[in-house]
Amino acid sequence: MNLSNLSARVKTTIILLGVVFFFASAAEIQAQKRFSKSYPASKNVNLKLINRTGSITVEGWNKEEVRILADMETASTNIQPQNLSGTIYVNVVKDNQGRNDVGYVNFKINVPFSSSVNIETIMGNLSVNNIGGVLVRAHISSEGDITLTNIGAANVSAENVIGDIFYDGEIRGEGIYRFTSTRGNINLRIPANSSFNLVATAPSTRNISLGVFTNANLNFGDGRRVFGKIGEGNASLTVSNQRGSISFLKR
Amino acid sequence: MNCEHCQESISAFLDNELDAIEASNIRTHLAVCAPCAKVCEDFAMILDFCQLEETADIAPPNSKALWCRINNLVETEIKEQAKPEEIKLGWFARFWQNSWQFSFTQVASALLGIALVSSLLTVVGIKNYSASSEMANHSTAPSLFDRALGKLGLIETPQQSREKRMHQQQLTVDYWRQRVETRRANWNPQVRDTFDRNLNEINQVIVEYDRILQENPQDNISGEMLDSALNEQVELLREFSEL
Predict the structure, then answer these.
(1) Pick from B139, B209, B243: which is nearest to A122 by CB?
(2) CA A49, A51, A57: angle at the middle one, nearest 5?
């Protein structure tokens, strides 16, 4: 075999490999699917979203419109949002009931600032930013991080099993705030002049860092639970972390 | 012969048990006295009927017993007629009409018993009310009185209450676990791993608090955390069973 023949064969092989790689990538791109839909909405629209697996990011914006973008792992995943008298309702679990080929779905949703947001996923990260409506609820059935930033809602609930929870927002008078995790770190960044009734429980680690509220007249018991009233407000703040820490940060 | 003597002798007359003179006297009287003749005729008919062969079929199986019962009935009726008539009274009237006579000791014991029972009921009521309303935020050891009430079964001890809750919860967990098992084969490896990891985490928490509560059944925080973990376990199973 001479040198020119060998060179030609190498070139042919490289070209063939290139072609195969190109088509494989194209097939992968083809398998992914993007869903996009917008709805005109009032300022205080409710968003309720139930996902199977994948992340959800909800951003408040200054438009009276809800925009839903979803990247799906498998093209056959079915998403059928419903607009029911002031509530945008998306239920990926129900829309794909009994199907085994549904992969992750990553949502990116924009809603008006004063919307209420109620999102759930079985696994995956949840993120809500710039929301000042009545309710913000983020629930992960198993694992994933929850990040709630710039929240002005009076009713806030965040719950996961494994993963961190970060809350950055207001504590409204008469509001109800509840953060629950089994294993992870719960960090709450709230204004130093917030007033509320606190019950913070971290029984395994006894790691409850009160930050700017350290000097408040609170009952520490044996260290597993801290409770008491901070300021004069009637808001209720309940934090429970079975096997992780709880920290308060100044906002 | 008068009628009384005649009627007393009719039975013997019909059975031919009288001597000839007596029988002749009876016959003479029956000829002139219609009522005695009627009685004699009735007796004769009864005797004729009894002498028929068919009477054996309709005779009672135990004539002695029958007569005994009839006799008893007759005697009872006679006794009741002899008694002065009583007025039937209700339960409350009988109770009210009873004359009660107690000694001082009996009255004192009864009052003490009533006071003790009413105090117990009041305490149990207050305990149950306060237990449901207070925030269980720290360990509280039960008083001696609580323990005594618990032993008597008047109040449910925290341990009993927890065991009952855990048993109920376990039934729910078993149900959802079965449903998860039917779906599990369809999950991809990533979902299976996530499920196992999270269930294991929750199970560890349950075991941990169960152990603490075995050592200190009155630890309310651990009891609360255990309840929370059990609920999370059910929630996890329920949601994964839908996948």
Answers:
(1) B243
(2) 65
How many whole angstroms from its chain centre is CA A209?
24
Cβ-based contacts of A221 with chain B (< 8 Å): 137-138
Contact A70, A35 (CB under 8 A): yes
Percent of chain B past pLDDT 90, that is, above it, reads 8
Dig out the tokens for B205 from the structure.
């928490």
Interface check A191 vs B, CB under 8 A: no
Angstrom distance (rounded) from CA A150 to CA A167? 8
A23's enclosing H/E stretch is helix A3-31
ipTM: 0.79
Chain B environment of A183 (Cβ under 8 Å) = 201
Contact A141 B139 (CB under 8 A): no
DSSP code of residue A244: S
Q: Within an 8 Å CB–CB cutoff, is residue A201 touching chain B?
A: yes
Whats the size of chain A, residue-wise? 251
Task: Tell whether A222 is within 8 A of chain B (Cβ).
Answer: yes
- Helix ranges, B134-188 (H): 144-152, 158-184
Beta strands at A105-112 and A65-72: parallel, antiparallel or unpaired = antiparallel
Q: Where are the domains positioned within chain B?
A: 3-82, 144-240
The β-bridge partners of A131 are A151
- How far apart are the C-alpha atoms of A42 and A39, rounded to whole Å? 10
| Eight-class DSSP state of B50 | H
Joined tokens for residue A89: 């309702």
Residues of A in contact with B139 (CB under 8 A): 222
Taking the CA of residue A251 and the nearest CA in chain B, the distance in Å comes to 28
Note whether A240 contacts B: Cβ–Cβ < 8 A. yes
pLDDT (tens digit per residue) in B184-224:
888 888 889 999 999 999 999 999 888 888 888 888 888 88
Which residue of chain B comes nearest to A184, CA vs CA?
A: B201
Residue A132 has pLDDT above 90, yes or no: yes
